[in-house]
Amino acid sequence: MRPAGDLVIVEGMIEVRQLTKRYGAKAAVDNLSFTVQPGRVTGFLGANGAGKSTTMRAILGLDRPTSGQALVNGRPYAAMRNPVHHVGALLDAAAVHGGRSAFNHLLCLATSNGIGGSRVTRVLEQVGLAGVARKRVGGFSLGMKQRLGIAGTLLGDPGILMFDEPVNGLDPEGIRWIREFMRDLAAEGRTVLVSSHLMSEMALTADHVVIIGRGKLITEASMGELAERHQRGVLVRTPQVEALSASLREAGAVVAAAEDGSLSVTGMEAAAIGELAFARGVVLHEITPRSASLEEAYMELTDDSVEYRATRINARGEAERTAA
Amino acid sequence: MSTLTATRPAAPAAQERSTSGLGRTIASEWLKLRSVRSTYMYLAAVALGVALGGLIAYLMTADFDTSPPSEQAFFGSADPGQLAVPLAQFCLAALAALAMTSEYATGMIRTSLTAVPARGRMLAAKAVVVAAVTAVAGLAVNFASYFIGAAITGDRPAPIRAFESLGDAMPSILAGSAALVVMGLLGLGLGAVLRATAGALVSITAILFVAPIAAQFLPRELGVKVFATLPMSLPAQLAGTEASPVYTQWGAAGVLALYAVVSLAAGWYLLKRRDA
Prior knowledge:
The complex is a heterodimer of chains A (324) and B (276).
Chain A lengths: L13 E10 L2 E11 L4 E5 L6 H8 L7 E6 L14 E4 L11 H11 L4 H10 L15 H13 L5 E5 L7 H16 L3 E6 L2 H7 L2 E6 L2 E7 H7 L1 E7 L3 H10 L3 E4 L5 E4 L3 H11 L5 E6 L2 H9 L8 E3 L5 E3 L3
Parallel strand pairs in A: 3-7, 3-8, 5-6, 6-7
Antiparallel strand pairs in A: 1-2, 1-4, 8-9, 10-12, 10-13, 11-12, 14-15
Chain B lengths: L20 H14 L2 H30 L2 H4 L8 H26 L1 H8 L3 H35 L12 H29 L2 H20 L3 H10 L4 H6 L9 H25 L3
Helix pairs in contact in B: 1-6, 2-4, 2-6, 4-5, 4-6, 4-7, 4-8, 6-7, 6-11, 7-8, 7-11, 8-9
Protein backbone atom coordinates (compact mmCIF):
# COMPACT_ATOMS: atom_id res chain seq x y z
CA MET A 1 0.00 0.00 0.00
CA ARG A 2 2.73 2.44 0.92
CA PRO A 3 5.88 2.80 -1.14
CA ALA A 4 8.78 1.01 0.50
CA GLY A 5 11.12 3.24 2.41
CA ASP A 6 8.46 5.84 2.95
CA LEU A 7 9.09 7.18 6.41
CA VAL A 8 5.80 7.03 8.20
CA ILE A 9 6.10 8.31 11.69
CA VAL A 10 2.59 9.56 12.21
CA GLU A 11 0.57 6.45 11.36
CA GLY A 12 -1.55 5.62 14.36
CA MET A 13 -0.58 8.77 16.21
CA ILE A 14 -2.79 11.31 17.85
CA GLU A 15 -1.06 14.62 18.39
CA VAL A 16 -2.58 17.38 20.44
CA ARG A 17 -0.63 20.60 19.99
CA GLN A 18 -1.13 23.61 22.24
CA LEU A 19 -4.83 22.98 22.12
CA THR A 20 -6.98 25.63 23.72
CA LYS A 21 -10.74 25.64 23.76
CA ARG A 22 -12.59 28.48 25.42
CA TYR A 23 -16.27 28.71 26.17
CA GLY A 24 -16.69 32.40 26.80
CA ALA A 25 -14.05 33.45 29.31
CA LYS A 26 -13.59 29.92 30.63
CA ALA A 27 -10.91 27.71 29.12
CA ALA A 28 -12.10 24.11 29.05
CA VAL A 29 -8.77 23.08 27.53
CA ASP A 30 -5.78 25.29 28.11
CA ASN A 31 -2.67 25.01 25.95
CA LEU A 32 -2.71 21.23 26.12
CA SER A 33 -0.10 19.18 24.28
CA PHE A 34 0.44 15.44 24.28
CA THR A 35 0.79 12.57 21.86
CA VAL A 36 -0.78 9.15 21.86
CA GLN A 37 1.29 6.27 20.51
CA PRO A 38 0.24 3.00 18.92
CA GLY A 39 0.59 -0.37 20.57
CA ARG A 40 -0.54 0.59 24.03
CA VAL A 41 -3.57 1.71 25.94
CA THR A 42 -3.23 5.36 26.85
CA GLY A 43 -5.40 6.43 29.72
CA PHE A 44 -6.68 9.98 29.59
CA LEU A 45 -7.28 10.90 33.18
CA GLY A 46 -8.80 13.87 34.85
CA ALA A 47 -11.54 14.86 37.23
CA ASN A 48 -15.00 15.59 35.92
CA GLY A 49 -14.83 18.85 34.00
CA ALA A 50 -11.07 18.63 33.50
CA GLY A 51 -11.50 18.89 29.71
CA LYS A 52 -11.21 15.26 28.62
CA SER A 53 -14.35 15.16 26.52
CA THR A 54 -13.67 18.57 25.02
CA THR A 55 -10.21 17.40 23.99
CA MET A 56 -11.63 14.25 22.44
CA ARG A 57 -14.26 16.25 20.56
CA ALA A 58 -11.53 18.55 19.29
CA ILE A 59 -9.49 15.56 18.10
CA LEU A 60 -12.56 14.36 16.18
CA GLY A 61 -13.17 17.74 14.61
CA LEU A 62 -16.49 18.13 16.39
CA ASP A 63 -15.40 21.16 18.39
CA ARG A 64 -13.37 23.88 16.79
CA PRO A 65 -10.29 24.72 18.87
CA THR A 66 -9.92 28.33 19.95
CA SER A 67 -6.24 27.89 19.15
CA GLY A 68 -3.79 25.09 18.60
CA GLN A 69 -4.66 21.90 16.80
CA ALA A 70 -5.27 18.21 17.10
CA LEU A 71 -3.90 15.88 14.45
CA VAL A 72 -4.72 12.30 13.69
CA ASN A 73 -2.23 10.43 11.54
CA GLY A 74 -0.61 13.79 10.93
CA ARG A 75 -3.65 15.68 9.67
CA PRO A 76 -6.82 17.20 11.01
CA TYR A 77 -9.61 14.67 11.45
CA ALA A 78 -11.98 16.66 9.26
CA ALA A 79 -9.56 16.31 6.34
CA MET A 80 -10.04 12.55 6.21
CA ARG A 81 -12.24 11.24 3.45
CA ASN A 82 -13.22 7.95 5.05
CA PRO A 83 -12.40 8.51 8.70
CA VAL A 84 -14.16 5.35 9.86
CA HIS A 85 -11.28 3.38 8.30
CA HIS A 86 -8.73 5.23 10.39
CA VAL A 87 -10.40 6.16 13.64
CA GLY A 88 -13.10 4.48 15.66
CA ALA A 89 -14.51 6.73 18.34
CA LEU A 90 -17.12 6.20 20.99
CA LEU A 91 -17.91 9.39 22.85
CA ASP A 92 -21.36 8.69 24.20
CA ALA A 93 -22.99 5.30 23.86
CA ALA A 94 -26.43 6.77 24.55
CA ALA A 95 -26.13 9.12 21.58
CA VAL A 96 -28.04 6.92 19.15
CA HIS A 97 -31.48 7.27 17.63
CA GLY A 98 -33.57 4.90 19.73
CA GLY A 99 -35.95 4.22 16.88
CA ARG A 100 -33.35 2.61 14.66
CA SER A 101 -32.38 -1.04 14.83
CA ALA A 102 -28.84 -1.87 15.85
CA PHE A 103 -28.12 -3.11 12.35
CA ASN A 104 -29.51 -0.03 10.64
CA HIS A 105 -27.74 2.31 13.04
CA LEU A 106 -24.40 0.78 12.13
CA LEU A 107 -25.31 0.51 8.46
CA CYS A 108 -25.96 4.28 8.36
CA LEU A 109 -22.41 4.87 9.58
CA ALA A 110 -20.94 2.14 7.40
CA THR A 111 -22.64 3.24 4.20
CA SER A 112 -21.26 6.76 4.43
CA ASN A 113 -17.76 5.29 4.46
CA GLY A 114 -18.30 2.71 1.75
CA ILE A 115 -18.60 -0.25 4.12
CA GLY A 116 -21.17 -2.93 3.38
CA GLY A 117 -23.76 -4.80 5.42
CA SER A 118 -21.68 -7.95 5.86
CA ARG A 119 -19.12 -6.03 7.85
CA VAL A 120 -21.94 -4.66 10.03
CA THR A 121 -23.09 -8.20 10.75
CA ARG A 122 -19.52 -9.17 11.54
CA VAL A 123 -18.92 -6.41 14.10
CA LEU A 124 -22.28 -7.08 15.74
CA GLU A 125 -21.19 -10.70 16.19
CA GLN A 126 -17.87 -9.52 17.55
CA VAL A 127 -19.50 -7.56 20.38
CA GLY A 128 -22.14 -10.19 21.03
CA LEU A 129 -25.14 -8.30 19.69
CA ALA A 130 -25.90 -10.49 16.66
CA GLY A 131 -29.04 -11.79 18.35
CA VAL A 132 -30.57 -8.33 18.72
CA ALA A 133 -29.32 -6.83 15.44
CA ARG A 134 -32.86 -6.14 14.22
CA LYS A 135 -34.14 -4.82 17.56
CA ARG A 136 -34.68 -1.13 18.12
CA VAL A 137 -31.80 0.46 20.02
CA GLY A 138 -34.23 2.33 22.28
CA GLY A 139 -34.90 -0.90 24.15
CA PHE A 140 -31.22 -1.62 24.80
CA SER A 141 -29.63 -1.48 28.24
CA LEU A 142 -26.70 0.86 28.73
CA GLY A 143 -24.35 -2.10 28.51
CA MET A 144 -25.83 -3.14 25.18
CA LYS A 145 -25.56 0.42 23.90
CA GLN A 146 -21.89 0.46 24.93
CA ARG A 147 -21.37 -2.72 22.95
CA LEU A 148 -23.21 -1.21 20.00
CA GLY A 149 -21.03 1.90 20.19
CA ILE A 150 -17.94 -0.27 20.30
CA ALA A 151 -19.17 -2.25 17.31
CA GLY A 152 -19.42 1.10 15.52
CA THR A 153 -15.79 1.89 16.28
CA LEU A 154 -14.72 -1.41 14.71
CA LEU A 155 -16.58 -0.95 11.41
CA GLY A 156 -13.61 0.29 9.42
CA ASP A 157 -11.04 -1.84 11.26
CA PRO A 158 -9.29 1.39 12.30
CA GLY A 159 -5.78 1.75 13.66
CA ILE A 160 -6.87 4.32 16.22
CA LEU A 161 -9.59 3.88 18.78
CA MET A 162 -10.95 6.44 21.21
CA PHE A 163 -13.34 5.77 24.06
CA ASP A 164 -14.77 8.38 26.40
CA GLU A 165 -15.53 6.90 29.82
CA PRO A 166 -16.46 3.52 28.35
CA VAL A 167 -17.08 1.73 31.62
CA ASN A 168 -19.51 4.25 33.06
CA GLY A 169 -22.69 2.52 34.09
CA LEU A 170 -21.56 -0.96 33.14
CA ASP A 171 -21.92 -4.08 35.23
CA PRO A 172 -18.75 -5.90 36.35
CA GLU A 173 -18.98 -8.39 33.49
CA GLY A 174 -19.26 -5.56 30.97
CA ILE A 175 -16.39 -3.67 32.57
CA ARG A 176 -14.15 -6.70 32.38
CA TRP A 177 -15.13 -7.28 28.77
CA ILE A 178 -14.23 -3.71 27.79
CA ARG A 179 -10.91 -3.85 29.64
CA GLU A 180 -9.85 -7.01 27.89
CA PHE A 181 -11.13 -5.69 24.61
CA MET A 182 -9.06 -2.51 24.86
CA ARG A 183 -5.97 -4.42 25.87
CA ASP A 184 -6.45 -6.77 22.91
CA LEU A 185 -6.77 -3.84 20.52
CA ALA A 186 -3.54 -2.34 21.81
CA ALA A 187 -1.81 -5.71 21.66
CA GLU A 188 -2.69 -5.84 17.96
CA GLY A 189 -0.65 -2.68 17.53
CA ARG A 190 -3.52 -0.24 17.49
CA THR A 191 -3.61 3.11 19.20
CA VAL A 192 -6.10 3.16 22.06
CA LEU A 193 -7.01 6.34 23.92
CA VAL A 194 -9.46 5.88 26.74
CA SER A 195 -10.63 8.57 29.09
CA SER A 196 -11.63 8.02 32.67
CA HIS A 197 -11.89 9.89 35.91
CA LEU A 198 -10.91 6.79 37.85
CA MET A 199 -7.25 5.93 38.32
CA SER A 200 -8.27 2.56 39.75
CA GLU A 201 -9.83 1.75 36.39
CA MET A 202 -6.82 2.94 34.42
CA ALA A 203 -4.46 1.00 36.65
CA LEU A 204 -6.07 -2.14 35.27
CA THR A 205 -6.13 -1.13 31.62
CA ALA A 206 -3.65 1.53 30.68
CA ASP A 207 0.05 1.26 29.98
CA HIS A 208 0.48 4.97 29.83
CA VAL A 209 -1.45 7.89 31.24
CA VAL A 210 -2.03 11.49 30.27
CA ILE A 211 -3.35 13.29 33.33
CA ILE A 212 -5.04 16.65 32.97
CA GLY A 213 -6.66 19.07 35.37
CA ARG A 214 -8.57 22.24 34.58
CA GLY A 215 -7.71 21.77 30.94
CA LYS A 216 -3.95 21.70 31.53
CA LEU A 217 -1.52 18.84 31.28
CA ILE A 218 -0.48 17.67 34.75
CA THR A 219 1.72 14.80 33.72
CA GLU A 220 2.25 12.22 31.03
CA ALA A 221 3.94 9.02 32.08
CA SER A 222 3.93 5.27 31.89
CA MET A 223 2.24 3.52 34.79
CA GLY A 224 5.62 2.29 36.01
CA GLU A 225 7.14 5.77 36.01
CA LEU A 226 4.16 7.12 37.84
CA ALA A 227 4.47 4.57 40.62
CA GLU A 228 8.20 5.19 40.86
CA ARG A 229 7.79 8.94 41.09
CA HIS A 230 5.47 8.57 43.99
CA GLN A 231 7.62 6.51 46.28
CA ARG A 232 6.57 7.04 49.85
CA GLY A 233 9.78 5.95 51.51
CA VAL A 234 10.31 2.92 53.70
CA LEU A 235 8.30 1.85 56.72
CA VAL A 236 10.53 0.65 59.53
CA ARG A 237 9.56 -0.88 62.87
CA THR A 238 12.10 -1.29 65.58
CA PRO A 239 12.11 -1.48 69.35
CA GLN A 240 15.14 0.86 69.28
CA VAL A 241 13.48 3.88 67.74
CA GLU A 242 15.88 6.50 69.12
CA ALA A 243 19.06 4.70 68.15
CA LEU A 244 17.96 3.89 64.64
CA SER A 245 16.56 7.37 64.03
CA ALA A 246 19.81 8.96 65.06
CA SER A 247 21.87 6.64 62.85
CA LEU A 248 19.63 7.16 59.86
CA ARG A 249 19.70 10.94 60.20
CA GLU A 250 23.43 10.79 60.54
CA ALA A 251 23.54 8.85 57.27
CA GLY A 252 21.48 11.58 55.56
CA ALA A 253 17.99 10.04 55.56
CA VAL A 254 14.87 11.88 56.56
CA VAL A 255 13.05 10.13 59.36
CA ALA A 256 9.53 10.74 60.57
CA ALA A 257 8.09 8.95 63.56
CA ALA A 258 4.48 7.87 63.32
CA GLU A 259 2.06 7.69 66.22
CA ASP A 260 2.15 3.90 66.30
CA GLY A 261 5.89 3.97 66.91
CA SER A 262 6.91 3.10 63.35
CA LEU A 263 9.33 5.19 61.35
CA SER A 264 8.87 6.49 57.87
CA VAL A 265 12.21 6.83 56.16
CA THR A 266 12.86 8.68 52.95
CA GLY A 267 16.07 9.30 51.11
CA MET A 268 17.43 5.83 51.70
CA GLU A 269 16.73 2.46 50.10
CA ALA A 270 15.34 -0.39 52.18
CA ALA A 271 18.52 -2.43 51.66
CA ALA A 272 20.73 0.40 52.91
CA ILE A 273 18.54 0.85 55.96
CA GLY A 274 18.78 -2.87 56.71
CA GLU A 275 22.58 -2.83 56.39
CA LEU A 276 22.86 0.25 58.56
CA ALA A 277 20.70 -1.35 61.25
CA PHE A 278 22.78 -4.51 61.11
CA ALA A 279 26.01 -2.55 61.38
CA ARG A 280 24.71 -0.65 64.43
CA GLY A 281 23.22 -3.76 66.00
CA VAL A 282 19.70 -2.44 65.85
CA VAL A 283 16.85 -4.95 65.84
CA LEU A 284 14.36 -4.55 63.04
CA HIS A 285 10.81 -5.90 63.24
CA GLU A 286 9.67 -4.73 59.86
CA ILE A 287 11.12 -3.00 56.86
CA THR A 288 8.72 -2.30 54.01
CA PRO A 289 9.29 -0.09 50.99
CA ARG A 290 6.10 1.83 50.35
CA SER A 291 4.97 3.30 47.12
CA ALA A 292 1.89 5.42 46.91
CA SER A 293 -0.90 3.58 45.20
CA LEU A 294 -1.56 4.92 41.73
CA GLU A 295 -4.80 6.23 43.13
CA GLU A 296 -2.89 8.22 45.77
CA ALA A 297 -0.44 9.44 43.18
CA TYR A 298 -3.32 10.59 41.05
CA MET A 299 -4.98 12.35 43.97
CA GLU A 300 -1.74 14.11 44.82
CA LEU A 301 -1.23 15.17 41.24
CA THR A 302 -4.70 16.48 40.71
CA ASP A 303 -5.36 17.86 44.15
CA ASP A 304 -4.84 21.47 43.15
CA SER A 305 -6.83 21.21 39.99
CA VAL A 306 -10.10 19.65 41.01
CA GLU A 307 -12.82 21.90 39.83
CA TYR A 308 -15.84 20.67 41.68
CA ARG A 309 -14.98 19.51 45.16
CA ALA A 310 -17.43 18.01 47.58
CA THR A 311 -17.39 19.14 51.16
CA ARG A 312 -17.99 16.50 53.74
CA ILE A 313 -20.80 17.22 56.15
CA ASN A 314 -20.00 16.00 59.64
CA ALA A 315 -22.40 14.55 62.15
CA ARG A 316 -23.43 17.96 63.38
CA GLY A 317 -24.17 19.16 59.89
CA GLU A 318 -21.07 21.30 59.62
CA ALA A 319 -19.16 21.31 56.38
CA GLU A 320 -15.54 20.17 56.42
CA ARG A 321 -13.01 20.19 53.66
CA THR A 322 -12.56 16.66 52.37
CA ALA A 323 -9.01 16.80 51.20
CA ALA A 324 -6.16 17.42 53.59
CA MET B 1 7.84 -1.63 25.65
CA SER B 2 8.30 -4.22 23.01
CA THR B 3 4.74 -4.16 21.72
CA LEU B 4 5.38 -0.95 19.85
CA THR B 5 6.01 -2.80 16.65
CA ALA B 6 2.80 -2.63 14.73
CA THR B 7 1.31 -6.06 14.29
CA ARG B 8 -2.24 -5.08 13.59
CA PRO B 9 -3.88 -6.82 10.69
CA ALA B 10 -4.21 -4.93 7.46
CA ALA B 11 -7.50 -3.14 6.97
CA PRO B 12 -10.00 -4.94 4.76
CA ALA B 13 -8.95 -4.68 1.15
CA ALA B 14 -12.35 -3.80 -0.30
CA GLN B 15 -12.74 -0.76 1.89
CA GLU B 16 -12.60 1.86 -0.83
CA ARG B 17 -15.58 1.57 -3.09
CA SER B 18 -15.88 3.45 -6.31
CA THR B 19 -18.91 5.55 -5.35
CA SER B 20 -18.14 9.17 -4.60
CA GLY B 21 -18.20 10.57 -1.10
CA LEU B 22 -21.43 12.42 -1.80
CA GLY B 23 -23.05 9.30 -3.27
CA ARG B 24 -22.26 7.30 -0.15
CA THR B 25 -23.41 10.05 2.12
CA ILE B 26 -26.70 10.29 0.21
CA ALA B 27 -27.13 6.52 0.54
CA SER B 28 -26.45 6.83 4.26
CA GLU B 29 -28.91 9.70 4.72
CA TRP B 30 -31.55 7.87 2.73
CA LEU B 31 -31.14 4.90 5.04
CA LYS B 32 -31.34 7.17 8.08
CA LEU B 33 -34.62 8.62 6.88
CA ARG B 34 -36.28 5.32 6.06
CA SER B 35 -35.05 3.49 9.14
CA VAL B 36 -37.00 5.57 11.66
CA ARG B 37 -40.67 5.37 12.44
CA SER B 38 -41.33 9.11 12.45
CA THR B 39 -40.82 9.25 8.68
CA TYR B 40 -43.64 6.79 8.11
CA MET B 41 -45.87 8.53 10.61
CA TYR B 42 -45.54 11.83 8.80
CA LEU B 43 -46.10 10.15 5.44
CA ALA B 44 -49.16 8.41 6.90
CA ALA B 45 -50.41 11.80 8.11
CA VAL B 46 -49.96 13.13 4.58
CA ALA B 47 -52.02 10.21 3.22
CA LEU B 48 -54.62 10.78 5.92
CA GLY B 49 -54.83 14.41 4.82
CA VAL B 50 -55.67 13.27 1.29
CA ALA B 51 -58.32 10.90 2.65
CA LEU B 52 -59.83 13.63 4.83
CA GLY B 53 -59.76 16.04 1.92
CA GLY B 54 -61.60 13.42 -0.12
CA LEU B 55 -64.20 13.01 2.61
CA ILE B 56 -64.80 16.75 2.79
CA ALA B 57 -65.02 16.95 -1.00
CA TYR B 58 -67.56 14.13 -0.92
CA LEU B 59 -69.67 15.85 1.76
CA MET B 60 -69.47 19.16 -0.09
CA THR B 61 -70.60 17.49 -3.30
CA ALA B 62 -73.50 15.78 -1.53
CA ASP B 63 -74.51 19.14 -0.07
CA PHE B 64 -74.16 20.71 -3.51
CA ASP B 65 -76.46 18.12 -5.05
CA THR B 66 -79.25 18.84 -2.57
CA SER B 67 -78.91 22.63 -2.72
CA PRO B 68 -81.12 24.83 -4.91
CA PRO B 69 -79.34 26.11 -8.06
CA SER B 70 -79.29 29.66 -6.65
CA GLU B 71 -77.02 28.50 -3.83
CA GLN B 72 -74.97 26.10 -5.95
CA ALA B 73 -73.29 29.03 -7.68
CA PHE B 74 -71.75 30.11 -4.37
CA PHE B 75 -70.11 26.76 -3.58
CA GLY B 76 -66.36 26.46 -3.48
CA SER B 77 -64.49 23.71 -5.31
CA ALA B 78 -64.71 20.21 -3.91
CA ASP B 79 -60.94 19.78 -4.16
CA PRO B 80 -59.34 17.38 -1.64
CA GLY B 81 -56.07 19.22 -2.22
CA GLN B 82 -57.34 22.27 -0.38
CA LEU B 83 -56.96 20.36 2.87
CA ALA B 84 -54.39 17.78 1.80
CA VAL B 85 -51.78 20.17 0.40
CA PRO B 86 -51.43 22.54 3.41
CA LEU B 87 -51.33 19.54 5.72
CA ALA B 88 -48.70 17.92 3.51
CA GLN B 89 -46.72 21.17 3.58
CA PHE B 90 -46.57 20.96 7.34
CA CYS B 91 -45.90 17.23 7.54
CA LEU B 92 -43.16 17.17 4.92
CA ALA B 93 -41.48 20.25 6.41
CA ALA B 94 -41.61 18.56 9.82
CA LEU B 95 -40.26 15.29 8.40
CA ALA B 96 -37.37 17.17 6.85
CA ALA B 97 -36.68 19.21 9.98
CA LEU B 98 -36.56 16.00 12.00
CA ALA B 99 -33.89 14.65 9.65
CA MET B 100 -31.69 17.30 11.26
CA THR B 101 -33.14 17.89 14.73
CA SER B 102 -33.49 14.21 15.66
CA GLU B 103 -29.71 13.97 15.28
CA TYR B 104 -29.29 16.71 17.84
CA ALA B 105 -32.03 15.41 20.13
CA THR B 106 -30.38 11.99 20.37
CA GLY B 107 -26.75 13.10 20.17
CA MET B 108 -26.44 11.08 16.97
CA ILE B 109 -25.08 14.20 15.26
CA ARG B 110 -21.68 13.65 16.87
CA THR B 111 -21.57 10.06 15.67
CA SER B 112 -22.74 11.16 12.21
CA LEU B 113 -20.13 13.90 11.95
CA THR B 114 -17.45 11.51 13.11
CA ALA B 115 -18.33 9.28 10.16
CA VAL B 116 -18.79 12.21 7.77
CA PRO B 117 -16.69 15.13 8.98
CA ALA B 118 -17.44 17.10 5.80
CA ARG B 119 -20.43 18.92 7.22
CA GLY B 120 -21.43 20.64 4.02
CA ARG B 121 -21.51 17.26 2.33
CA MET B 122 -23.74 15.85 5.05
CA LEU B 123 -26.23 18.70 4.73
CA ALA B 124 -26.15 18.45 0.93
CA ALA B 125 -26.86 14.71 1.15
CA LYS B 126 -29.78 15.36 3.49
CA ALA B 127 -31.08 18.02 1.11
CA VAL B 128 -30.93 15.63 -1.85
CA VAL B 129 -32.79 12.94 0.10
CA VAL B 130 -35.39 15.41 1.41
CA ALA B 131 -35.92 16.87 -2.07
CA ALA B 132 -36.42 13.41 -3.56
CA VAL B 133 -38.81 12.25 -0.85
CA THR B 134 -40.85 15.45 -0.86
CA ALA B 135 -40.98 15.51 -4.66
CA VAL B 136 -42.38 11.98 -4.78
CA ALA B 137 -44.73 12.59 -1.85
CA GLY B 138 -45.75 15.98 -3.26
CA LEU B 139 -46.60 14.59 -6.68
CA ALA B 140 -48.49 11.72 -5.06
CA VAL B 141 -50.55 14.08 -2.88
CA ASN B 142 -51.37 16.44 -5.72
CA PHE B 143 -52.20 13.78 -8.28
CA ALA B 144 -54.21 11.77 -5.76
CA SER B 145 -56.12 14.90 -4.76
CA TYR B 146 -56.93 15.65 -8.37
CA PHE B 147 -58.11 12.15 -9.25
CA ILE B 148 -60.13 11.73 -6.04
CA GLY B 149 -61.68 15.16 -6.56
CA ALA B 150 -62.46 14.39 -10.20
CA ALA B 151 -64.00 11.04 -9.27
CA ILE B 152 -66.23 12.67 -6.62
CA THR B 153 -67.41 15.68 -8.59
CA GLY B 154 -67.77 13.77 -11.87
CA ASP B 155 -69.30 15.95 -14.59
CA ARG B 156 -70.86 18.50 -12.24
CA PRO B 157 -70.40 22.14 -13.24
CA ALA B 158 -67.56 24.49 -12.50
CA PRO B 159 -67.71 25.89 -8.98
CA ILE B 160 -67.90 22.48 -7.35
CA ARG B 161 -65.66 20.81 -9.91
CA ALA B 162 -62.18 22.19 -9.41
CA PHE B 163 -60.66 21.38 -12.78
CA GLU B 164 -62.03 20.77 -16.27
CA SER B 165 -59.45 18.08 -17.05
CA LEU B 166 -56.08 16.72 -15.97
CA GLY B 167 -54.42 19.11 -18.40
CA ASP B 168 -56.29 21.97 -16.75
CA ALA B 169 -55.12 20.78 -13.33
CA MET B 170 -51.49 20.20 -14.33
CA PRO B 171 -50.11 23.67 -13.46
CA SER B 172 -51.67 23.42 -9.99
CA ILE B 173 -50.39 19.88 -9.50
CA LEU B 174 -46.83 20.78 -10.48
CA ALA B 175 -46.78 24.08 -8.60
CA GLY B 176 -48.22 22.39 -5.51
CA SER B 177 -45.59 19.65 -5.70
CA ALA B 178 -42.77 22.15 -6.17
CA ALA B 179 -43.98 24.07 -3.13
CA LEU B 180 -43.87 20.86 -1.11
CA VAL B 181 -40.23 20.29 -2.08
CA VAL B 182 -39.51 23.86 -1.00
CA MET B 183 -41.24 23.27 2.32
CA GLY B 184 -39.12 20.18 2.85
CA LEU B 185 -35.90 22.08 2.18
CA LEU B 186 -37.11 24.97 4.32
CA GLY B 187 -37.82 22.51 7.15
CA LEU B 188 -34.35 20.97 6.79
CA GLY B 189 -32.69 24.39 6.83
CA LEU B 190 -34.70 25.46 9.87
CA GLY B 191 -33.77 22.20 11.56
CA ALA B 192 -30.08 22.87 10.94
CA VAL B 193 -30.38 26.44 12.22
CA LEU B 194 -32.51 25.71 15.30
CA ARG B 195 -31.21 22.21 16.15
CA ALA B 196 -34.30 21.56 18.24
CA THR B 197 -37.40 19.73 17.10
CA ALA B 198 -39.83 21.90 19.07
CA GLY B 199 -38.32 25.11 17.75
CA ALA B 200 -38.39 23.85 14.17
CA LEU B 201 -42.03 22.72 14.39
CA VAL B 202 -43.10 26.02 15.95
CA SER B 203 -41.31 27.94 13.19
CA ILE B 204 -42.91 25.84 10.47
CA THR B 205 -46.33 26.33 12.05
CA ALA B 206 -45.72 30.05 12.32
CA ILE B 207 -44.69 30.38 8.68
CA LEU B 208 -47.49 28.19 7.36
CA PHE B 209 -50.46 28.92 9.58
CA VAL B 210 -49.81 31.90 11.87
CA ALA B 211 -48.18 34.31 9.44
CA PRO B 212 -51.16 34.28 7.01
CA ILE B 213 -53.43 35.33 9.89
CA ALA B 214 -50.95 37.89 11.16
CA ALA B 215 -50.74 39.36 7.66
CA GLN B 216 -54.42 40.27 7.90
CA PHE B 217 -53.63 42.70 10.68
CA LEU B 218 -51.02 44.59 8.71
CA PRO B 219 -51.89 47.78 6.80
CA ARG B 220 -53.89 46.64 3.79
CA GLU B 221 -51.31 47.11 1.04
CA LEU B 222 -48.42 45.64 3.04
CA GLY B 223 -50.63 42.84 4.33
CA VAL B 224 -51.52 41.77 0.82
CA LYS B 225 -47.85 41.70 -0.18
CA VAL B 226 -46.80 39.76 2.90
CA PHE B 227 -49.68 37.34 2.45
CA ALA B 228 -48.73 36.74 -1.18
CA THR B 229 -45.11 36.09 -0.15
CA LEU B 230 -45.99 33.29 2.28
CA PRO B 231 -45.47 29.68 1.20
CA MET B 232 -49.20 29.01 1.51
CA SER B 233 -50.05 31.58 -1.19
CA LEU B 234 -47.20 30.93 -3.60
CA PRO B 235 -48.32 27.70 -5.33
CA ALA B 236 -51.41 29.36 -6.89
CA GLN B 237 -49.32 32.28 -8.10
CA LEU B 238 -46.72 29.88 -9.48
CA ALA B 239 -49.44 27.90 -11.26
CA GLY B 240 -50.98 31.09 -12.64
CA THR B 241 -54.37 30.28 -11.15
CA GLU B 242 -54.41 33.11 -8.61
CA ALA B 243 -57.08 35.65 -9.61
CA SER B 244 -55.18 38.67 -8.28
CA PRO B 245 -51.51 37.71 -8.03
CA VAL B 246 -48.84 39.93 -6.51
CA TYR B 247 -46.05 37.94 -8.17
CA THR B 248 -45.70 36.75 -11.72
CA GLN B 249 -45.22 33.01 -12.16
CA TRP B 250 -41.47 33.52 -12.41
CA GLY B 251 -41.58 35.84 -9.43
CA ALA B 252 -43.42 33.22 -7.38
CA ALA B 253 -40.87 30.60 -8.44
CA GLY B 254 -38.08 32.93 -7.35
CA VAL B 255 -39.65 33.60 -3.95
CA LEU B 256 -40.20 29.88 -3.37
CA ALA B 257 -36.60 29.13 -4.33
CA LEU B 258 -35.44 31.84 -1.93
CA TYR B 259 -37.16 30.09 0.99
CA ALA B 260 -35.17 26.94 0.29
CA VAL B 261 -31.89 28.63 -0.56
CA VAL B 262 -31.85 31.10 2.34
CA SER B 263 -32.78 28.54 4.99
CA LEU B 264 -30.31 25.96 3.68
CA ALA B 265 -27.54 28.53 3.38
CA ALA B 266 -28.15 29.68 6.95
CA GLY B 267 -28.21 26.06 8.11
CA TRP B 268 -25.01 25.29 6.21
CA TYR B 269 -23.21 28.34 7.58
CA LEU B 270 -24.14 27.58 11.17
CA LEU B 271 -23.48 23.86 10.84
CA LYS B 272 -19.97 24.63 9.59
CA ARG B 273 -19.29 27.19 12.27
CA ARG B 274 -20.79 25.73 15.40
CA ASP B 275 -19.41 23.00 17.61
CA ALA B 276 -21.40 19.82 17.22
